């Protein structure tokens, strides 16, 4: 990890401790929009850390704050990248929670219920 000052073309300036990480398919057009528009003000987590619906909700919440507005096309690119790279269902549970928690049987929960459970356990 390292400390760096983040200067953004969108008016954000902050000191951040960041973990440099390689993002999947970071050369793709959608990944470049994700990097440019999200990391300009945030130390963004790896897209596989959260499920797609959680990311989508975060973007909706940011729209109502004093955040630089992203265009509809940029939002589509960001969501497309996240949808491709985000974790899903029991795989996410096993990756994020399974070391400490016993999962319900795979057939017991619907996809959205898995995602909600993961968000609660992850504290997000």
UniProtKB/TrEMBL annotation:
Q: Which residues form the Cytochrome c domain?
A: 25-124
What molecular functions are annotated in GO for this chain?
A: electron transfer activity; heme binding; metal ion binding
The answer, when asked if Metal-binding is one of the entry's keywords, is: yes
- SUPFAM superfamilies in the cross-refs: Cytochrome c (SSF46626)
The cross-references to InterPro entries, in alphabetical order and at most eight, read:
Cyt_c-like_dom, Cyt_c-like_dom_sf
Keywords in alphabetical order: Heme, Iron, Metal-binding
Name recorded for this polypeptide: Cytochrome c domain-containing protein
The species this protein was found in: marine sediment metagenome
């Amino acid at each position: 990890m390292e400390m760096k000052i983040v200067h953004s073309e969108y008016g954000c300036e902050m000191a951040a401790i960041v973990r440099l990480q390689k993002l999947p398919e970071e050369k793709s057009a959608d990944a470049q929009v994700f990097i440019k528009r999200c990391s300009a003000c945030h130390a963004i987590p790896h897209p596989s850390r959260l499920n797609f619906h959680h990311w989508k909700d975060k973007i909706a919440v940011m729209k109502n704050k004093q955040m630089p507005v992203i265009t509809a096309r940029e939002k589509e690119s960001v969501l497309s990248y996240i949808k491709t790279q985000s974790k899903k269902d029991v795989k996410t549970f096993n990756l994020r929670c399974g070391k400490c928690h016993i999962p319900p049987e795979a057939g017991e929960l619907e996809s959205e219920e898995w995602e909600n459970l993961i968000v609660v356990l992850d504290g997000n």
